[in-house]
Design goal:
By secondary structure, the chain is mainly alpha-helical. The protein contains eight helices and no strands. It binds zinc ion. InterPro entries: RVT-Znf (IPR026960).
Length: 196
């Protein structure tokens, strides 16, 4: 026997003694933990799959997937890759430019979302991780509302790029209407193709 073995402490019950009952409780806890993690993985998997069932142009789906994966070249992400880039959002100069900030919390995004009627108005304005934001939208919006939200988010990203690279400031209304027009046209074409 190894001497140190005697010093092993069973931490899971107050007497610090191993008992079958406490072992059983630990096993139950582990089982429960696995169950929670597993069901989380299943719902996450379903959520990731949901991206590809959006009825939006493929480039919007791809954009949502990249945003959820946090691989868009925002200032925060570029800064995180040790590039000499200020992580600050240039639009509001108030916060780091993360995807959640840019597409949801930044005043530019707020101005666009403020023009949308419906449930979106009732959601918290605070920055969220984009995947968490997608989860919230997917849980609470109808398919059509979700398609619109995704396309508007994509339009916001384009407006951000226009601002950074072309020094063009798009009006929130133009961003919104451009997105809706694009989505409608795509869905119209899909309907025509589907009818043939
Ligand atoms: Zn900002």
């Amino acid at each position: 026997m190894i001497a140190s073995r005697d010093k092993l402490i069973w931490k899971e019950n107050s007497a610090k003694l191993f008992t079958v009952k406490s072992a059983y409780q630990v096993a139950l806890k582990l089982k429960e933990k696995n169950r929670v993690e597993h069901s989380r993985a299943i719902t996450d998997r379903a959520l990731w799959k949901k991206i590809w069932t959006l009825k939006t142009p493929p480039k919007v789906e791809m954009f949502v997937w990249r945003a959820c994966s946090n691989i868009l070249p925002t200032r925060e992400n570029l800064h995180g890759r040790k590039m000499k880039i200020d992580p600050q959002c240039e639009i509001c100069c108030q916060k780091h430019e993360s995807i959640g900030h840019l597409l949801w919390e930044c005043p530019l995004a707020r101005n666009v979302w403020a023009l949308c009627r419906g449930k979106i108005q009732k959601f918290s304005n605070a920055e969220q991780d984009f995947f968490a934001l997608f989860r919230m939208m997917a849980n609470r919006l109808t398919q059509m509302e979700l398609d619109k939200w995704a396309t508007r988010s994509w339009a916001l990203w384009n407006a951000r790029n226009k601002f950074y690279f072309e020094q063009v400031q798009q009006h929130p209304k133009a961003i919104l209407e451009g997105a809706i027009g694009y989505l409608k046209e795509y869905q119209r074409l899909c309907a025509i193709m589907g009818n043939h």
